[in-house]
């Protein structure tokens, strides 16, 4: 959910550059390879909703009785039937008991502070049973969502809208509609009143005078307010994508392939030699990739991978990794990585610098700390000649749940890690559509072009809903992603990692996808 509103519409420790520190590196980089920290919860097939009621401002919602036909008299003066002071500009229900011409006077309400209320919306539905309203939220991992929602209660024949809260526990990433209402319509078409949680912004709101002619009995008329200030909304409007700037030149592929993640580790987690790295990079180039993404600077990543990339004509995405809470610009591990990049400085190979990987999601950085770190890295690398684009990458939920406007202002492109396997409602053949949808959400957050820095599918593991791991499923998912947006994604990962813990989904060792590409 996006922070501050009702839910709308969810690491690498720098280990030095010498192979002698590889064993420590293996354990420190565990979070880099575990695709979700809550994988155990993701693979638990259960979902529970726990309800609780809280005190909230309520408005009376008049039920809409079925009207009956009648002739229209010449004129009938009516007095509004709403009672009680109007404190917020929710639509005023006015009951017209008999046919005639009704005049409702203008009403003005001044709101001095942001207020959350239970308002009413209306929608026409045909005959049948319908599920309406509720709160829609998108979660990136197994999580517990606590949010207010609007519902109705009937007491002594009076239907009242109230705000309640619910704790919604679900084990898989995905889109959930929390606490909808169900209504049955017997007429051919009926206007149904649906309560909604609405945020009212400060301002002066006016319901203008209304003169209306009613031809039926027991009709309820809603008189809405208007304002020169922003209208109340039930969800924040995303930034438009139409004005997004073009991506920096050089980013992305020209066909269905662009980049592959690469980490220079042997199956036991030790660092690979330069010749072993060269062999791997040659295979990646043979598969048709044009770019490599590396995460940090240890295991002699920059000199070894850089030399092989130059030999085989590949580009590089370099990175700064954060593996612990703090995200301090002056942290020795961060400084070591920045210094390694400054000493290497083969910028003619580099298309993008990624500062941190899922640092918000893992709680290693606050938004402010990450913003400062990106600015510091830009200054440091800029001082030795790098003038290419910068970004940070995180799961989609981290982009949506935080106010990331300060980060948006200091990055050139937006980036996300999106793994369709962790959405239990996504079949392998639909992985491409899922990843494209995730990228679209993140692009809207910053209004900038976006890229996926990690995506893939495991070749082994348990089924997560309809998302099952396996070699054929991996191939199907990756082909789906390639066809949908292959020129904007970095596939994870080159080879399997047998040294890792398999995790509760039994998949953590099995993301290697080189065989799908024939190498």
From TrEMBL:
GO biological process, one term: cell wall organization
Stretches with biased composition (Polar residues): 67-85
InterPro entries linked: Beta-glucan_modifiers, GH
Localization per Swiss-Prot or TrEMBL: Secreted, Cell wall
Record carries keyword Cell membrane: no
Keywords: Cell wall, Glycosidase, Hydrolase, Secreted, Signal
Main location: secreted
GO cellular-component term (any): cell surface
Region of interest called Disordered, as start-end residue ranges on this chain: 60-88
Any one GO molecular function term: glucan endo-1,3-beta-D-glucosidase activity
Summary of the function given for this chain in its UniProt record: Beta-glucosidases are one of a number of cellulolytic enzymes involved in the degradation of cellulosic biomass. Catalyzes the last step releasing glucose from the inhibitory cellobiose.
Family statement: Belongs to the glycosyl hydrolase 17 family.
Protein name per its UniProtKB record: Probable beta-glucosidase btgE
